[in-house]
Amino acid sequence: MPVTKYRSIEEMNHDWRWKKPGDPAITRKVRLLWQMAERAVQPVGLCIPRGIRKYRSVEEASRDRDERERERNDRLRKVRGLKNS
Protein backbone atom coordinates (compact mmCIF):
# COMPACT_ATOMS: atom_id res chain seq x y z
CA MET A 1 0.00 0.00 0.00
CA PRO A 2 1.52 3.33 -1.00
CA VAL A 3 2.34 5.95 1.60
CA THR A 4 1.41 9.54 0.85
CA LYS A 5 2.90 12.56 2.65
CA TYR A 6 0.88 15.72 3.03
CA ARG A 7 2.05 19.22 3.88
CA SER A 8 -1.25 20.33 5.39
CA ILE A 9 -4.69 19.14 6.47
CA GLU A 10 -6.24 20.93 3.51
CA GLU A 11 -4.01 18.99 1.11
CA MET A 12 -4.97 15.74 2.81
CA ASN A 13 -8.71 16.51 2.72
CA HIS A 14 -8.47 17.44 -0.95
CA ASP A 15 -7.01 14.02 -1.78
CA TRP A 16 -9.93 11.90 -0.48
CA ARG A 17 -11.16 9.47 -3.08
CA TRP A 18 -14.82 9.23 -2.09
CA LYS A 19 -17.16 7.39 -4.39
CA LYS A 20 -20.36 9.02 -5.51
CA PRO A 21 -23.59 7.57 -4.03
CA GLY A 22 -24.88 4.75 -6.23
CA ASP A 23 -21.45 3.97 -7.69
CA PRO A 24 -21.24 0.19 -8.37
CA ALA A 25 -17.66 0.18 -7.06
CA ILE A 26 -19.01 0.65 -3.53
CA THR A 27 -21.00 -2.58 -3.72
CA ARG A 28 -18.00 -4.46 -5.11
CA LYS A 29 -15.73 -3.22 -2.33
CA VAL A 30 -18.23 -4.11 0.40
CA ARG A 31 -18.69 -7.58 -1.11
CA LEU A 32 -14.90 -8.06 -1.22
CA LEU A 33 -14.54 -7.02 2.42
CA TRP A 34 -17.28 -9.42 3.53
CA GLN A 35 -15.67 -12.26 1.56
CA MET A 36 -12.29 -11.56 3.16
CA ALA A 37 -13.84 -11.53 6.63
CA GLU A 38 -15.71 -14.78 5.94
CA ARG A 39 -12.52 -16.51 4.76
CA ALA A 40 -10.68 -15.28 7.85
CA VAL A 41 -13.11 -16.99 10.26
CA GLN A 42 -14.52 -19.74 8.04
CA PRO A 43 -12.58 -22.78 9.23
CA VAL A 44 -12.91 -22.03 12.91
CA GLY A 45 -15.94 -19.83 13.35
CA LEU A 46 -16.37 -17.21 16.00
CA CYS A 47 -17.57 -19.67 18.66
CA ILE A 48 -20.22 -17.31 19.95
CA PRO A 49 -22.93 -19.35 21.65
CA ARG A 50 -26.49 -18.70 20.57
CA GLY A 51 -29.09 -17.63 23.06
CA ILE A 52 -28.75 -16.55 26.65
CA ARG A 53 -26.66 -18.42 29.18
CA LYS A 54 -27.30 -18.10 32.88
CA TYR A 55 -24.66 -18.82 35.49
CA ARG A 56 -24.81 -19.26 39.24
CA SER A 57 -21.53 -17.43 39.78
CA VAL A 58 -18.84 -15.40 38.06
CA GLU A 59 -16.50 -18.37 38.40
CA GLU A 60 -18.91 -20.63 36.51
CA ALA A 61 -19.21 -18.03 33.73
CA SER A 62 -15.41 -17.72 33.56
CA ARG A 63 -15.01 -21.51 33.34
CA ASP A 64 -17.51 -21.67 30.49
CA ARG A 65 -15.78 -18.85 28.61
CA ASP A 66 -12.37 -20.47 29.15
CA GLU A 67 -13.73 -23.79 27.85
CA ARG A 68 -15.06 -22.14 24.67
CA GLU A 69 -11.74 -20.34 24.14
CA ARG A 70 -9.84 -23.60 24.61
CA GLU A 71 -12.10 -25.37 22.06
CA ARG A 72 -11.64 -22.55 19.57
CA ASN A 73 -7.86 -22.58 20.02
CA ASP A 74 -7.80 -26.35 19.53
CA ARG A 75 -9.75 -25.98 16.27
CA LEU A 76 -7.38 -23.21 15.13
CA ARG A 77 -4.35 -25.38 15.86
CA LYS A 78 -5.90 -28.28 13.97
CA VAL A 79 -6.76 -26.13 10.93
CA ARG A 80 -3.33 -24.49 10.89
CA GLY A 81 -1.48 -27.73 11.54
CA LEU A 82 0.04 -26.65 14.84
CA LYS A 83 0.76 -28.91 17.80
CA ASN A 84 -1.04 -28.46 21.12
CA SER A 85 1.20 -26.84 23.71
Please name the defining characteristics of this protein.
85 residues; 0% strand
* Estimated radius of gyration: 22 Å
Distance between the termini: 36 Å
Mean pLDDT: 82
Give the biggest beta sheet: none
Low-pLDDT runs: none
**Tally of DSSP β-strands:** 0
Q: What structural class do helix, strand and pairing data support?
A: mainly alpha
* Share in helix: 55-70%
**Strand coverage percent:** under 5%
**Count of DSSP-assigned helices:** 3
Order of helices and strands: HHH
Shape estimate: elongated
Kindly summarize this structure in a few lines:
By secondary structure, this protein is mainly α. The protein contains three helices and no strands.
Strands, helices and their partners?
Blueprint: H1 9-14, H2 24-41, H3 58-80
Please characterize this protein's 3D structure.
It is a single chain. The protein has about 80 residues and is an all-alpha fold. It has a domain at about 20-80. Helices cover about 55% and strands about 0% of the residues. It has three helices and no strands. The chain is elongated, with a radius of gyration of 22 Å. The chain starts with 8 loop residues before the first helix and ends in a 5-residue tail after the last helix. The model has no long low-confidence stretch (mean pLDDT about 80).
